[in-house]
Specification:
mainly alpha; 54% helix; 4% strand
C-alpha cells in the first residue's frame, strides 16, 4: 500500500497572518520576510536569525493576555501539578474544591507511573533543577503510595468480612 502522506502546512500561513494582524493592531510595523527565517541553535532548538529586528519577548506577550492567577506552562509546573494531584489521590491532602480527602490509589498509581515514564523519556534532556525536582517528587510519591497501600491493606485485615 503505497499511499503518499499528506501534510497540511496551511496552519503556518494562518499563524503568520495572525501575527501580522496582531502587530498591526498594536501599532508595530509589518515584519519583513527575513523576520520569518529561523536558524538552528547549537542545542537543537530554533532561534531567531541574527538579521532579525528585536521583537517583544513572547513570554511578555503571553503574560499580558493571560488571566490573573494563571501560571507559566513549563516542565517544573507540570511536574508540580502531577505531584499535587497524586498527593490528593493518595489522601495526603484534601481536594482543593471539596476540601475533603478523596483517596483513589489507582489514580495515584497512574500519576506516579506517568512521572516515572517522564523521567525515563526525558533523561539527559532536563536541566539540573528539573531533573532534581522530578527525581525528588517521584521518590516521595512512591514512598507515600506504598505507605498508603500498606495502611489500606492493614485496615482490610482488621475488618472482618461478613
Amino acid at each position: 500500500m503505497d499511499r503518499e502522506k499528506y501534510v497540511d502546512e496551511s496552519w503556518k500561513e494562518s499563524a503568520t497572518k495572525e501575527k501580522e494582524k496582531l502587530k498591526k493592531s498594536t501599532g508595530q510595523a509589518k515584519p519583513s520576510s527575513s523576520a520569518h527565517q529561523e536558524e538552528k541553535s547549537p542545542k537543537g532548538s530554533f532561534a531567531p536569525s541574527s538579521n532579525q529586528e528585536p521583537q517583544e519577548n513572547e513570554a511578555d506577550q503571553q503574560q499580558s493576555s493571560r488571566p490573573a492567577g494563571a501560571q507559566d506552562i513549563n516542565f517544573i509546573n507540570y511536574v508540580t501539578s502531577l505531584g499535587f494531584q497524586a498527593l490528593i489521590f493518595i489522601g495526603e491532602i484534601p481536594h482543593p474544591m471539596t476540601n475533603e480527602i478523596e483517596k483513589n490509589l489507582e489514580q495515584a498509581k497512574f500519576l506516579i507511573d506517568t512521572m516515572a515514564m517522564l523521567k525515563e523519556k526525558t533523561q539527559g534532556n532536563l536541566s539540573k533543577q528539573e531533573s532534581d525536582l522530578l527525581n525528588a517528587t517521584l521518590y516521595e510519591l512512591q514512598l507515600k503510595y506504598v505507605e498508603a497501600v500498606n495502611a489500606e491493606g492493614s485496615l482490610a485485615v482488621e475488618r472482618p468480612h461478613d
